[in-house]
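Note to self: keep these together.
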Amino acid sequence: MHNVGFTPRPRLRGRPSFYDLIKSSVATTTTPRAVDIAADSLPTVNPRLHTELHDLIASTIPLPTSPTQQRHRSLPQSTSSIPEEVAPLTEPVTLPHTDITMGPKKSEKKPEAAREAEAEEQHGSIYSVSGPVVIAENMLGVAMYELVKIGHDNLVGEVIRIEGDRATIQVYEETAGVTVGDPAIRTGKPLSVELGPGLMETIYDGIQRPLKSIAELSSSIYIPRGISAPALDRKKLWEFKPLMKVGDHITGGDIFGTVYENSLLDDHKILLPPRARGTITRISAAGKYTVDAKILEIDFNGKKSEHMMMHTWPVRVPRPTTEKLAANKPFVVGQRVLDALFPSVQGGTVAIPGAFGCGKTVISQSVSKFSNSDIIIYVGCGERGNEMAEVLMDFPELSIDIKGRKEPIMKRTTLIANTSNMPVAAREASIYTGITVAEYFRDQGKDVAMMADSTSRWAEALRELSGRLGEMPADQGFPAYLGAKLASFYERAGRVQALGNPSREGSVSIVGAVSPPGGDFSDPVTSSTLGIVQVFWGLDKKLAQRKHFPSINTSVSYSRYTAVLDKYYEKDFPDFPRLRDRIKTLLSDSEELDQVVQLVGKSALSDTNKITLDVAQLLKEDFLQQNGYSDYDQFCPIWKTEWMMKAMMGFHDESQKAISQGQSWNKVREATSDLQSQLRNMKFELPSEGEKAIVAKYEKLISDMNEKFASVVDE
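Structure:
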């Protein structure tokens, strides 16, 4: 080594302790060197280096006194442990001034108000900004998914990664103007939503800020950065009716009162938060109160707590339930092709994938308008703003019959708008906000339907955040945990027995629209979703181009709930399962025959196959197609669907019977042309005329059809 000009590095015999360093700094009779270096540990090959090193160590400034050493000094010391050349310490060493403060002992804890004030003052500073992803330092003690206020505008963000004292935060607002060194203030709580009276007929953004209140506050059509407004109106008075009294035992999920919210939701139940319990020591009398008025006081083991009509709940935590139940009631959406062939259940999960222009949004809005759910939560996640505007304009005008009176659909709807021009990160928040609000109404014993339009935009937001975080990409750049994220969302659907008393059952049904680019069903989002959901309503671009709406492709769509619902149909609609299976078989047979016709022509087919093709055409044009903008066909009840199936399959059976008795299909078709016209006109009957009147017309049509076929066969 010395031949090439390297000098060996001197080695210390051992690392000196703080005690040795303090000793050498205060002793007056010892050598001024702070560290003794053994002579034999120094190289002998370079005497000059040996001399320089000793001179350097001799001029070293002693280290400051350690707090640990001072604590040792307060104890009685034995002089025998000190070497002879060091004099015993007689005076305490003064500690240098530092900004570090020790935590209070248990007996010296500060009052809760002082601790909260101190917690609010704890904040870090911005270290880096990359679009919606911000890294803040000096964030020791921060928790995962804690809410953080970013910058001087107090932008809302959520901690998604912690490394040492640095926290990675996804910001739910535009981060333009945020600079390095800006404050990052911890709130000490997760992203939560307010749950209570006033949620209906309201439109929120992705983090539950009421857009109407923000518009009034800011006098602008845009959402100012950092603005905050209470999700529930603090000034509005609600008529509260207590259901419990002082002395009653109460636990999480119990209903202790009701509120009249509107004519559709006349029994908004006031629930005790799931984690609270105790004995009621005070409950307000019936009267009008605001949502933040303390109307209940409970005592548990000497600790008292007060509760309001509203409470908060973290959006990423599913609300607890007593148990999950098997779904057994159909989720009626008013579209014949969906209710008859691919039904869902109350508490089911549905995916609607389709390319642009296939009608995903129209189906989602139809579900919102006409489904048999009690509450509708419509989440516009990354889609166009005019679609949310259309919902806002249409829903107040549309009405449903409730106990003989017309009521606007908006009264049972909550809208959560996070359109494509809003910040990307808030798309995830809007999905979780929507499902948490849905779970709240489920716990009241309601059947809730949640529409998410579209989960693809949420997945694209995940992809952007994952790329900025430097995570390992999977298929098409999406993160590897995409499937787990989707599953955790869809698993919050279901029919449950709610927590608390009285006993009640509720359900959350999720209808998620998926927008694969170019209608490619092998897209990672679509394939991940199909592995989770139980119902698949596949939209076909070719059908949409032919103006066949709803453009449901019957050959690729499926439902895993058909067997579950058969027991329900047996009671009220006994023929429904049999007719459904026969129509599915007929449609699949007709697709095979279509391929034969393209090769050899229709004239080469037998009369039996010609009947199959013609009846399939009748079904596709007048049963499966539906005009969503007409009075007669925008909603089709189950009983009307069943009678149309009976009549059309009855025509098929009678035609096959006539052919088997020697008649030709051309002759039968000409003789029954009036019947075919009547079958095509069945959809024009208005459901508002009443079930009895319309069923009487359908029964007459079927009897006329039987007579007509009998006369044709006799000829």
